[in-house]
Amino acid sequence: MDTITLGHLTGWQFAALAFAALLVGFSKTAVSGANTVSLAIFAAVLPARASTGILLPVLIAGDVLAVLTYRRHAHWPTLWRLFPAVGVGVVVGTLFLVRADDAVVRTSIGVILLFMAGVTVWRRRQADAAGAAAGQPDGVATRAGRAKARSYGVLGGFTTMVANAGGPVMSMYLLSAGFRKLGFLGTSAFFFLIVNVSKLPFSAGLGLIDGHSLLLDAALVVFVVPGAFLGKWAVDRINQRLFERLVIAATVVGGLQLLLA
């Protein structure tokens, strides 16, 4: 990959990356999917392919903080159902990265995110019209639920491998499965910690992570911590309906950013 060091960055570029790292911490403990903005900032400041490798350890730092905050709220049956499909998606995404250029990657993921947001809005309106209550998650209860988990899992693994953009896909799945706010955050925290750590050898093998990128990560991880605390403070003040709207809005913004980049 293109070698990136702190010495290559101007003050404004580092400030933009630091803000993006703070936003990663916020998104991991408050509004999942908002880190698509971080993805866009990293891709704007750094070479597109290199940015995915540099962003990954920053995301893992946010995942660790999210797990420490919401570890009691994870729904493990959903996680176990998702992981095999996600593994398939990660492998497919790795093969895709070998062949596809940045423009194809961005366009593909942007279309997927906007489609998922549209489907989720439609499903939530149907549930509201029927008077359905979003209580326990339904993602693994039926054959249709298991099929949905597999399809979202493959898409989530694919998008997280090629552009660290799996957050919005899994956000749409967890919302459509009926997860409440804390269950949503706890389940996604463990999901992304495990998935992102498993991506490290793939990213290193593709040359997206090296010693220079890790030194830059060490400087940026410091900014993830205040973002996580800010997110924990904010999430206690966001009601369920607003939480869902913010997640969907962040997904739409992320998809549009990728399409228009």
Automatic annotation (TrEMBL):
Membrane topology: Multi-pass membrane protein
UniProt cross-references to InterPro entries, sorted A to Z: TM_pro_TauE-like, TSUP
Coarse class of the protein's main subcellular location: membrane
Origin: domain of life: Bacteria
Keywords in alphabetical order: Cell membrane, Membrane, Transmembrane, Transmembrane helix, Transport
Keyword Chaperone: no
Matches recorded under Pfam families: TauE
Compartments in which it is found: Cell membrane
Transmembrane regions: 49-70, 82-98, 104-122, 182-202, 214-235, 242-260
Similarity comment: family membership: Belongs to the 4-toluene sulfonate uptake permease (TSUP) (TC 2.A.102) family.
Name of the molecule in the record: Probable membrane transporter protein
Naturally occurring in which organism (per UniProt): Streptomyces ardesiacus
